[in-house]
Amino acid sequence: MSVDIVRGTSQKPVSSNALVEVVSQQTKWSGRLFIGYPIFSTSEGLRMIDALLVSADMGVVVFDLIEGHETGDFGARQDDSANKLEARLKVHQGLMRRRDLMVPIHTISFAPALTNPDSYRDSYRDSYRLEDYPLANASSLIEELNRFTWSCAHGQDLCAKVLSAIEHITTMRKRGFSRHVAEAASRGAKLVKLEKSIATLDNMQNRAVIETVEGIQRIRGLAGSGKTIVLALKAAYFHAYNPGWRIAVTFNSRSLKAHFRRLINNFFIEQTGEEPDWNKLRIVNAWGAWQGKDRRGIYAEFCRLHGMTFFDYGKARNRFGPGREFKGACEYALANARNREPVYDAILVDEAQDLPAIFLRLCYKLLKHPKRLVYAYDELQNLRGRSLPSPEEIFGKNKDGSPKVRFDDTGDLAPQRDIMLSKCYRNSKPVLATAFALGLGIYRKPPQGTETGLIQMFDRAHLWEDIGYRVRDGALRDGSNVTLDRTEDTSPEFLEDHSNLDDLIRFIAFRNQDEQADWLAEAIAENLLKDELRHDDIMVINPDPRATREKVEPIRSRLKELGIRSHLAGVDTDPNTFFRPGKASVTLTGIHRAKGNEAGMVYIIHAQDCHSAVRNLASVRNCLFTAITRSKAWVRVLGFGESMAMLKSEYEKLKARRFELRFTYPTSEQRERLRLIHRDMTTADANHLRNRDRHLDDLLKELESGEVQIEDLDEETIARFRSVLTK
Question: Could you say which of 507, 574, 607, 626 is the most buried, measured as most Cβ atoms within 10 Å of its Cβ?
Answer without folding.
Answer: 607
